[in-house]
Amino acid sequence: MIEQVPGKVDMDKLVSLCKRRGFIFPSSEIYGGLSACYDYGPLGVELKNNVKKAWWKTVVQERDDMVGLDASILMHPQTWVASGHVEGFADPLVDCKQCRQRWRADQIKDGKCPTCGGELTEPRMFNLMFKTFVGPVEDEASVVYLRPETAQGIFVNFQNVLSSTRKKLPFGIAQMGKSFRNEITTGNFIFRMREFEQMEIEYFVKPGTDEGWFKQWVEARFNWYSDLGIKKENLRLRQHGKDELAHYARDCYDIEYLFPIGWSELEGIANRTDFDLKQHAKYSGKDLSYFDDETKEHFIPYVIEPSAGVDRSILAFLADSYDEEKDKEGLRVILRLHPALAPIKVAVLPLSRNEKLLPLSKEVYDSLRSCWMVQYDDAQSIGRRYRRQDEIGTPFCVTIDFQSLEDKQVTIRERDKMRQIRVPIEVLKPTLEAKLCGEPLDVLPPGGKKWLGFEAS
Ligand code: ATP
User: Fold this and answer.
1) Phi/psi of residue 17, each to 5°?
2) pLDDT tens digits, 195-252
3) Which of 129, 312, 373, 388 has the highest local Cβ count within 10 Å?
4) For the whole model, what pTM was predicted?
5) Residue with CA at minimum distance from ligand 1 atom 1
6) Which residues of 401-422 are buried (b: 16+ CB within 10 A; e: fewer)?
7) CA-closest candidate to residue 176, choices 84, 313, 361, 280
8) What is the pLDDT of residues 149-164, one digit of tens each?
9) Cα-based distances in Å from 185 to 83, 266, 414
10) Distance CA 427, CA 368 (A)
11) Ligand 1 center to residue 278 CA distance, Å?
12) CA torsion sign, 208 to 209 to 212 to 216?
């Protein structure tokens, strides 16, 4: 049963939109699905790529102090002994004696089964890592784990990155990719999955400067979500209490989002001190210290770790952008996605299927698709086609009509207020580029004019 926050979009509505329009499908659905695993469809994969691209742009491309990494999912098993995951990456599991359902003991409020009210067993610890084997022999010596986080791939490559890039502190390494956790309680769509993607940063700093950098990262990461359109009132910071902090962590904040299921973690930012590098130095026997040229000292850097989930971000972006408006044709469903995230940036729509419009419409379509993901749609009425694009979050539609054949101008219609401008085809591409980067619609290119919808705004 999915709980629902009043006033937020219904989770069922989101799930159904995602299925219907090809954002997200249950994994291996024809066989009945696999619990807590999902597949991203044609629009979903675009949205997911755009979320990852936006993160990479902010944390790697636009910063001098960050580099990227793509480590393998399977790692030497000692990695997980050193990191503490073999010993401690476990949740307390309880079973309902009546209906046999399993729960995480720390998520049970009154000691009874939330489904049937039945009595629960004593908690026992359950390790969340998926185990598998390398090579043909399935024995303890060949055990490896599917990584439960991407972070350890960064720590074990600290010296490789340092010596190959000659970076000086403070600097960070960013990585995104799949992680796997055999979660006990799942559900709530893509909020908690067994196979999911993370976007993680390990930012290495000189001890003593860590608190300042921690504050900067908390602020930078909060702003990333709001800059990409999430309403500030739906975001909040929650500092971890002393009882929640890992023994080595100095401080930790969660960025929480008001999901349809309530306030929940979107991203965690932790000051992990020198714990991870020290552990890997100890277990590998390798020197993972940093030599400071100026002070001529060797030391183990402290680490600030902003750790985000791709899928949870997608759920937040979808939930926050979902909107409905009543109009004379019924209900207009709109995904008010930031243009950087929208799966399709522009739709090219000939006014009708009349073959006179075809050559120019195709010419316009071909000229735009090398720049962005563009859709061509000539099926059904123009009104219905606009609605279809609104529902998948397409920021702009370009309409070619009979007048276009005469004056070589087309209409650009924006999603949010449905206002329209008319622009010469020869300036269509730079005009769309400017609008996708945030230029107001009423800034007109040479020869352009305001068209429909402006009176009402
Ligand atoms: P939770 O308390 O919700 O289990 P966590 O504190 O264990 O999460 P972290 O280990 O800090 O999560 O992971 C960092 C981020 O990875 C989370 O903020 C979340 O966005 C994402 N994440 C973690 N587990 C999952 C999961 N099972 N499914 C989807 N995303 C996840």
Assistant:
1) -60, -45
2) 999 999 999 999 999 999 999 999 999 999 999 999 999 999 999 999 999 888 999 9
3) 312
4) 0.94
5) 265
6) beebeeeebbbbbbbeebbbbb
7) 313
8) 999 999 999 999 999 9
9) 24, 17, 42
10) 12
11) 24
12) negative
Q: Tokens 């206002």 sit at which residue?
A: 419
CB 44 within 8 A of CB 24: yes
**Is 331 strand, coil or helix?**
strand
Closest ligand 1 atom to Cα of 264: 3
Closest to 413 measured CA to CA, from 426, 388, 128: 388
Question: Which ligand 1 atom sits closest to the C-alpha of 181?
Answer: 27
Looking up tokens 């990333």 gives 224
Cβ–ligand 1 contact at 307 (below 6 Å): yes
Unique residue bearing structure tokens 């329009």: 21
Is 38's C-beta closer than 6 angstroms to any atom of ligand 1? no
Burial class (CB in 10 A: 0-12, 13-18, 19+), 111: exposed
Per-residue model confidence as pLDDT tens digits over 6-36: 778 899 999 999 999 999 999 999 999 999 9
Query: Which residue, by CA, sits nearest to atom 8 of ligand 1?
Result: 265
What are the structure tokens assigned to 349, written together?
Answer: 């729509």
End-to-end CA distance of the chain: give it in Å, rounded: 42
- Give strand pairing partners of 123: none
Q: Is the CB of 85 under 6 A from ligand 1?
A: no
